[in-house]
Amino acid sequence: MFDQYGPPPTADEILDALDPEQRRVAKSVDGAVCVLAGAGTGKTRAITHRIAYGVLTGVMQPTQTLAVTFTARAAGEMRGRLRQLGVSGVQARTFHSAALRQLQFFWPRTYGVNAPRLVERKVPLVAEAVADCRLRADKAELRDLTGEIEWAKATQTAPDDYPGQVLATKRKPPRDAAEVARVYAAYEKIKAGRGQMDFEDVLLLTVGLLDERIEVREQVQAQYKHFTVDEYQDVNPLQQRLLDLWSQQSRSLCVVGDASQTIYSFTGATPGFLLGFRHRHRSAEVVELVRDYRSTPQVVRLANRLLTHATGEAAKHRIELISQRADGPAPEYVEFGDEPGEAEGVARRVAKLLEQGVRAAEIAVLFRTNSQSESYEQALADLGIPYVLRGAERFFERPEVRQAAVLLRGAARSADSGAGSGLAAEVGAVLVAGGWTPEPPSGSGQVRERWESLNALVRLSEDFSAARPEATLADFVEELAERANAQHAPTVEGVTLASLHAAKGLEWDAVFLVGLTEGMMPITYADTDEKVEEERRLLYVGITRAREHLTLSWALSRSPGGRPNRRPSRFLDGLRGGGPVSSGGSFARTAGAAAPASGEARERAERRTRSGPVRCRVCGRGLAEAAARKLGRCLECPSDLDEELYQRLLDWRKGQAAELGQPAYCVFTDATLTAIAEAQPSSENQLAAISGVTRAKIGKFGDDVLALVAGRVPGTSEPFVEAP
Predict the structure, then answer these.
(1) Model pLDDT, residue 423
(2) Which residues pair with 545 in a beta bridge?
(3) Is 42 annotated as a binding residue?
(4) Residue 522: per-residue pLDDT
């Protein structure tokens, strides 16, 4: 990297900073060049150095050079790198930003009026269109309809042609294709009548302007002679049409992409333009970047093996990566008994990495759908590990979850009695009004995402009821409020929680790919070979985000004690030979986390690895439910709870939570406090044997808890005296 404050590099120094393949890219400053760049191979470095080399050698003029990409972040990174290379004046923009700039400049000069006003939120207009068509749609359906209209416009499909296009492409629309077409037409009519345009219109109107007005097209083509397109595998037909109009008279056109990272087909993106580039530009130079500077050989080998099983057109052009880094740890495969155990096991491994000096910001937990985030948010919060949720609203800030909270609060206020064992059924009955159904909706999209979020609340109520059989709906509402407050607390540098789609373009030292079961990866609604292959590419993107540490995990059942009827993802077939499969129960030892320090804690961890269940300490029966295992006894067996001690623990926890600015459950859950009040531990070893008491929590709270159990005021030798 060049010093941005020192003298700018020379053309030779630009080339000297590159590997042989990158150097070929940089020197191809005339004509067409197609760069097939694998993950972590330095594609941004190659194309920015190419632009800098072209400027320094006089082939390119900065003001005649346009670099386009798909996100403002990527465009900003390109501008920053060009500045470091001593190049200014080059336009680096997104497709929409570049088109909007041209539209706002040429529209008034061409038509004598300002360009239509840009509407940033389409959903309200779609809602009006639905009403005009005398149809009904809730918020989730409106978002799905909006997405479908975006797809139609990106593929240049008019409302009248939409039903036929759906039939031809075997697309599954969010509702009847004829109804979607009617809404689409009404939406366009409303928007045009108000002199408005949406983001897709920015491209459509620019294409129309350049197509119809030769004087405008010639001026744009005279302005820009050199084009660079990043992430070219994500181009849709409308963007390609605009690029064709821009670059008809260009001196050079450089595109860069990787067909194996095409994961946005639902937006109309297709790798066909990348793969067909050499056929449209017969004299194009094709350069493959295969040297992976991001990931260790172990991670790279796994990524390569995954793609050897791929099929389809993109698979024919896959890139075999070659790692340039030193050896690292082998990827780990971890099988858990249930989803909560998976979340807790991953959180423990994260804690171990933090102890080893890995920064929280260099760790990511990646999942297939946003609805999976809640259990990982909770597991990290339980260990006091900060996190940030990327690419999605926080779980408790999602509209459907906020609406559900309102419904539950209203129901709790009007409830005549606490439901106790019927809490989950009561929550489910309330959430039916919010759109929840016992069975998931078919297909994908916002409707499915909303259902997943609401279903997560129903599942949460099941777990809450199991831990507190006497809990009422009001208790559950209070628990939800505490969890929501924890998410609103100021967050410092934290572990990233993100969907695989949101992780595209990012990288971390350590990556956990979680929930890798059939039905989730590939997702249930991936019902064609093409969709399954896109799911494989999505997993490939996840694997290649990791620089050094990579863990792939799955759970055999949804909840503790449930039937282990889930199967690991088919994508793992043929991969696990590269690394052992660890049992989630022994995760602390097999996956490198700290081994339990105490004899009783070690015995407890070993009990989890045995096939037989934990036994009730009262009657000796096997314990299957999570709440029962946490207490160490059947829920119906008599409790030897010390009521006074339990109340002391509750009061102490309330003070600790207020001091830390966290909800009470982040200190200890109710079930853990109950177990402490029953077991009455007298040493750290005995305290560590209680489920929910981690070594980290012993370090923070152990002395206080043991003092309370012994009847002393924490931090003193004074006996605890109950208030009169």
Answers:
(1) 85
(2) none
(3) yes
(4) 92
Q: What is the DSSP string of 283-344?
A: T-EEEEE-EESSS-HHHHHHHHHHHHT--SHHHHT----EE-SPP-PPPEEEEEEEHHHHHH
Closest CA to 517 of 453, 584, 582, 565: 565
- Is 415 flagged in the annotation as binding? no
Nearest-Å Rg of the Cα atoms of the chain is 29
Mean pLDDT (whole number) for 327-334: 94
φ, ψ (nearest 5 deg) of residue 698: -65, -40
Does position 608 have pLDDT exceeding 60, yes or no? no
Helix axes 177-193, 123-132, angle to 10 degrees: 110
The DSSP 8-state label assigned to residue 405 in this structure reads H
The reply to whether omega before 613 is within 30° of 0 (cis) is no
Length of the chain: 724
DSSP secondary structure, 423-481, as one string: HHHHHHHHHGGGT--SSPPSS-SHHHHHHHHHHHHHHHHHHHHHH-TT--HHHHHHHHH
Contact 646, 677 (CB under 8 A): yes
Distance in angstroms (rounded) separating the CA atoms of residues 94 and 81: 16
The pLDDT value given to residue 631: 64
Q: What whole-number distance in Å separates Cα of residue 54 and Cα of residue 3?
A: 20
Any known ligand binding at 41?
Answer: yes
483 or 507, higher pLDDT = 507
Report the distance separating Cα 114 and Cα 110, nearest Å.
10
Which tens digit of pLDDT belongs to each residue from 365-386? Answer: 999 988 788 788 878 877 878 7
- DSSP labels for 676-696? HHHH---SHHHHHTSTT--HH
Ligand-binding annotation for 71, yes or no, is no
The verdict on whether residue 44 carries a ligand-binding annotation is yes
Above 60 in pLDDT, residue 8?
yes
**Worst-scoring range by mean pLDDT, 337-341, 446-450, 499-503?**
446-450
Burial class (CB in 10 A: 0-12, 13-18, 19+), 285: middle
Q: What is d(CA 245, CA 199) in angstroms, rounded to the nearest whole number?
A: 19
Determine the 3-state secondary structure of 31 from DSSP: strand
Beta-sheet pairing, 363-367 with 31-37: unpaired
Q: What is the full DSSP assignment across 476-523?
A: HHHHHHHHHHHHHS---S-EEEEETTTTTT--EEEEEE---BTBBTTB
Residue 695 has pLDDT above 60, yes or no: yes
Q: Give the model's pLDDT for residue 635.
A: 58
At 156 the pLDDT is 84
Place of tokens 């830390």: 660
Beta-strand ranges (E) seen in 592-690 are 614-615, 622-623
The number of helix segments (H) and strand segments (E) in the chain equals 30, 19
Does residue 43 have a known ligand-binding role? yes
